[in-house]
Amino acid sequence: MILGEHYKRLQESRQATETYGAAVRRVAMATTIIGVYRVGETRKHFLTPWLFSESELQDLGLPDLENFVRDLGAFETVRSQWAAHAQAKKATARGPGRLVDAEALGRALERTGIGNDEEFLRRVRNDLIPAVEQVRDRILQAHPEAQDFITTGYPQALQQGAIKEEARNRGAV
Fold this sequence. Notes:
The protein has 173 residues and is mainly α. The chain has two domains: 2-142; 147-173. 75% of the residues lie in helices and 3% in strands. The protein contains eight helices and two strands, in the order H-H-H-H-H-E-E-H-H-H. A two-stranded antiparallel sheet has the order 1-2. Helix 1 (2-12) runs antiparallel to helix 2 and helix 2 packs parallel to helix 7 (117-142). The radius of gyration is 20 Å and the shape is globular. It starts with a helix and ends with a helix. The relative contact order is 0.10.
């Protein structure tokens, strides 16, 4: 969202080239697609049915991924192309990998609504993000100890893991 707004300001002031704009749009869309996918995965693997019922999440405005992207199979195609692997089929001993068919990718973009990137980003900003924030706030209200985990515990453990790995790698040299 921020990248898109940044680019728009640069474009309006004529400080951005078309190539720069294409790169910013690509990064913004790839990042958004990864984020939308992660929201779907979090909803499926952490939220329901353990912390919330399906109806509670609906009441908070958090749709399941398939309802948000309209066609989950098509979304998987787009996600794979833009944010994961650029191939439809991996290379084997018998032959090279294959790209996702361009027409199939075009159909997937339209089926998911991602083909209209401005409208898709607007839906993420206006519909999905507020719902995610409501769910987060409800979790923190019910489980105040989660705040420490989110802001301190997990980040510190992550940093400690990286420090230990770096030390182990230096010792192995």
